[in-house]
């Protein structure tokens, strides 16, 4: 592969790294933070499942991003990913849990504005509506799961050690499912903008053809894994008790609700099944893993009438509004610099 | 196979802790059995007898084993296993239960050091007091085991512990009343009262443990 491609892809890889560093905590944070699961075990499972999810089911959500803005030149894709990554990095530094998805959408709109391409308002509305739907759906899923699991525990009456074992297995399975969904749904944020402009050719391995997009997704997923291994431990250790204090069973419910929602918004076959039975298709959009977790946590807090730290939540919501705006501005300026200072083709 | 062995070791952690907890609780039963034998041999053969020395040595060995298990359980509890919100309750339960064994061992040691002369008229009362304590301890252990296996039975055993502890109090009062009615020097009476009170404190501690388990259960059932 040409070295220039790696240079251009570097911004996407950086974005992937920061996604791995931050979002793995949503999947395995409580399990590792509470020492129910070892970090190395969690990181190994997370990495493998993120790669599988990205390569097998990554395409669905990536098409929606492609429809929002067809970033036609690799120089432009580089700048879009870099501005999104920088925004995520700066917001994380400021202590706000931000969404890579919101950042990349903002950056794509920045590219549209710079290149004079129209932003498809229908696609944008679809994406924006999922940002609202995602936490609400996560909250509803979490409430239903929580009620179900509590009923099951009361009915089966497991002993303490049995419950401990089940919770451990549950956290591992939910973490694996969550990692798969994270890879499937969020790989579009990391590599989606490169799909149109990539100069990669399809390759065939063991009689299976890997398209250019699949190769990109694999590379992006490896970057996510590196993020998981190098930086996520720190985030995992601090996650969990920020909004409400959680028991491992509650943590399991939160991770499952998060994973189900991410899976819903990335599964092409589930969407097809919906259409087959006469229901509207599910919008396949990269949604924020952090938003899903926060939605699930709030759902349980409301159900159990637990005090929610509304001030913290307010800061989180503020981050969700600022992120796309900041990213769009950063991308617009970035494209100007890359085009005029570095003489690169950006559109 | 690296991944598989890692996963299976992860899942076996809580079962190994479970085994250790049950082994630990068994030590309490063994210790009280030994405590009863210790008193029987003291009353029958005296502090210099082989039987008494042997019983005390066995009681100390049990205390040693329980301490070792307690440390192992506490370490694994905090290092890796067991549902985090229950860790401190389990650790506190183990810690308290260990004190039951320690108290019995201490009484045994003081018997060896002080060699109190116990009048024959009191022997039956002393053994009756020890027997009611055995019942209290047995039901406390059942209560503890239910906390790990079947929460519904905890209250049932807790009520029994309360009843047996009342019996133990009555047994203690009876032996002390009998003691102070005897025609022996006051100094000897005071020394013996100290022993009977020490025995009674074992039952009190057992009831305290059972009370705590009952509270832990209410917390878990919420």
UniProtKB/TrEMBL annotation, chain A:
The keyword Transmembrane helix applies. The keyword Hydrolase does not apply. Its main location: membrane. Keywords: Membrane, Transmembrane, Transmembrane helix, Transport. GO terms for biological process: phosphate ion transmembrane transport. GO terms for molecular function: phosphate transmembrane transporter activity. It is a multi-pass membrane protein. InterPro entries: Phos_transporter. It comes from the Bacteria. The chain crosses the membrane at residues 36-59, 71-91, 127-149, 169-188, 208-231, 243-265, 277-303, 315-338. GO terms for cellular component: membrane. It is found in: Membrane. PANTHER family: PHOSPHATE TRANSPORTER. This is Inorganic phosphate transporter.
Automatic annotation (TrEMBL), chain B:
Residues 52-79 form a coiled coil. Keywords: Coiled coil. Pfam families: PhoU_div (PF01865). Belongs to the UPF0111 family. This is DUF47 family protein.
């Amino acid at each position: 592969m040409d070295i220039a491609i790696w240079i251009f892809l570097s911004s996407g890889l950086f974005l992937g790294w920061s996604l791995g560093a931050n979002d793995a905590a949503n999947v395995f944070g409580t399990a590792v933070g509470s020492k129910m699961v070892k970090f190395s075990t969690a990181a190994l499972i997370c990495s493998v499942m993120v790669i599988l999810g990205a390569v097998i089911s990554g395409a669905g959500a990536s098409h929606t991003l492609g429809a929002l803005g067809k970033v036609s030149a690799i120089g432009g894709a580089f700048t879009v990913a870099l501005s999104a990554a920088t925004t995520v990095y700066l917001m994380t530094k400021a202590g706000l849990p931000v969404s890579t998805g919101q950042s990349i959408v903002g950056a794509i709109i920045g590219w549209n504005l710079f290149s004079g391409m129209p932003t498809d308002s229908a696609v944008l509305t679809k994406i924006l509506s999922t940002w609202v739907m995602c936490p609400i759906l996560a909250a509803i899923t979490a409430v239903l799961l929580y009620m179900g699991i509590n009923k099951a525990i009361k009915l089966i009456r497991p002993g303490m050690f049995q419950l401990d074992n089940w919770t451990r297995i549950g956290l591992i399975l939910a973490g694996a499912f969550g990692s798969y969904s994270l890879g499937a749904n969020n790989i579009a944020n990391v590599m989606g903008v490169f799909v149109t402009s990539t100069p990669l050719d399809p390759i065939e391995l063991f009689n299976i053809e890997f398209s250019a997009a699949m190769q990109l997704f694999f590379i992006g997923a490896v970057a996510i894994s590196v993020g998981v291994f190098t930086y996520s431990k720190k985030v995992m250790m601090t996650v969990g008790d920020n909004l409400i204090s959680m028991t491992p069973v509650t943590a399991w419910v939160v991770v499952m609700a998060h994973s189900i929602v991410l899976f819903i918004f990335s599964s092409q076959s589930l969407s097809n099944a919906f259409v087959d039975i006469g229901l509207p298709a599910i919008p396949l959009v990269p949604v924020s893993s952090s938003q899903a977790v926060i939605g699930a946590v709030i759902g349980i807090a409301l159900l159990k009438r637990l005090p929610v730290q509304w001030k913290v939540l307010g800061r989180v919501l503020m981050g969700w509004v600022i992120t796309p705006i900041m990213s769009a501005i950063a991308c617009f300026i970035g494209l100007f610099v890359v085009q005029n200072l570095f003489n690169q083709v950006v559109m | 196979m690296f991944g598989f062995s890692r996963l299976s070791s992860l899942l076996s952690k809580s079962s190994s802790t479970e085994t250790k907890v049950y082994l630990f609780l068994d030590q309490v039963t063994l210790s009280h059995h030994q405590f009863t034998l210790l008193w029987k041999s003291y009353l029958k053969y005296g502090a210099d007898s082989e039987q008494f020395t042997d019983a005390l040595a066995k009681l100390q060995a049990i205390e040693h084993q329980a301490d070792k298990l307690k440390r192992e359980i506490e370490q694994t509890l905090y290092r890796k296993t067991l549902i985090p919100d229950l860790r401190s309750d389990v650790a506190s339960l183990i810690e308290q239960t260990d004190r039951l064994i320690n108290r019995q061992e201490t009484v045994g040691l003081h018997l060896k050091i002080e060699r109190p002369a116990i009048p024959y008229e009191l022997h039956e009362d002393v053994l009756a007091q020890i027997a009611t304590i055995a019942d209290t301890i047995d039901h406390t252990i059942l209560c503890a085991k239910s906390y790990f296996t079947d929460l519904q039975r905890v209250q049932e055993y807790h009520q029994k512990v309360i009843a047996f502890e009342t019996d133990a109090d009555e047994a203690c009062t009876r032996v002390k009343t009998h003691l102070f009615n005897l025609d022996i020097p006051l100094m000897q009476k005071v020394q013996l009262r100290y022993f009977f009170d020490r025995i009674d404190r074992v039952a009190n501690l057992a009831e305290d443990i059972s009370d705590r388990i009952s509270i832990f259960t209410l917390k878990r059932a919420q």
